[in-house]
């Protein structure tokens, strides 16, 4: 039979073969065979996430004994009582949440304008250059980047050295081994994740929407606050949640930039597990950190549903 549109000749056998292949593909994707593709990822998730997390939760309810890792059938809440009755631990919870929140807001403040510029840049060359600048900071190892910050912010670093040499200050400013140094280090590490989360969302906002607001008499600033910013809220929420999760769970940054003086939950976990060998109490602190992150995700879901009109 000749196809009138293309002028090609197809036989009945070829048509039957094509139809059979299409039906086989439909049966594959609609039947149980399709789910076989999910099994490798499911097994990986089960072995390397579910099992360790469940073991962590179980270990947290055992009596804290130095050097003992094996699970016990005796359940106790002493580890959690100790966390919430001693100021050094529950203050660390508040400090961890506070630092992560501040880092998220700072990354949003600096990251949104950069993401907006990249998303609105029409020239492919300029867009590629800006993306390279953002991604290049992620290519270096975290420790190397932090040591670079230590050279910059140290008591004898470039900033303090220049200010003292110019006579602006008489002594070095406390830029490291405090909360300020930890916040600067976390912002430097997590800022690219915020930018990358925002670029795609801002690009998806059609320029005609902003132009329509301008044609109705809105100024450029009014059109941005009324149209662009609300439509980019999913990216803002996703980037903020990602930065918050990275900041609250970071150990390397508080250890190097805080000099073991800024006590956050990951520092306590390391001390209990690596230094004192109390795996049970360290697991309890890890559970608190895990639950805190889940609460942040729950808040994110609630805010996201409200900002998207109830659509999750």
From TrEMBL:
Pfam families with a match to the protein in the record: BPD_transp_1
GO biological process: transmembrane transport
Occurrences of domain ABC transmembrane type-1 (ranges): 93-300
Assigned keywords, A-Z: Cell membrane, Membrane, Transmembrane, Transmembrane helix, Transport
Localization annotation: Cell membrane
Subcellular location, principal: membrane
Signal peptide range in chain numbering: none
Transmembrane segments annotated in the record for this chain: 33-60, 66-85, 97-116, 128-146, 158-177, 183-202, 223-253, 279-300
Membrane topology: Multi-pass membrane protein
PROSITE patterns on file: ABC_TM1 (PS50928)
Superkingdom field: Bacteria
GO cellular component, one term: plasma membrane
Family: Belongs to the binding-protein-dependent transport system permease family. CysTW subfamily.
Protein name: Putative spermidine/putrescine transport system permease protein
